[in-house]
């Protein structure tokens, strides 16, 4: 019966760890996407929208 308690505790730790990692990864992913979008907006402003800017030649 003692081993069953350890298995239940281990199962609970795995489930709780999964949810914690999922929440942290979701928040981290949202932060990375936001930072990338901000950098893209700054690049668009710098290359295309600021006064006197000439578009880069491709």
Structure explained in plain terms:
- By secondary structure, the protein is mostly helical.
- 83% of the residues lie in helices and 0% in strands.
- The protein has one helix and no strands.
- The protein has one helix at residues 2-49.
- The protein is rod-shaped.
- The model has no long low-confidence stretch (mean pLDDT 79).
Count, helices: 1
Radius of gyration equals 24 Å
Helix content: over 70%
Form type: rod-shaped
> Structural class, please?
mainly alpha
Summarize the helix and strand pattern as letters: H
Largest sheet: none
Low confidence ranges: none
What's the average pLDDT? 79
Number of strands: 0
Strand content: under 5%
Sum this structure up briefly:
This protein is mostly helical.
Summarize the topology.
Blueprint: H1 2-49
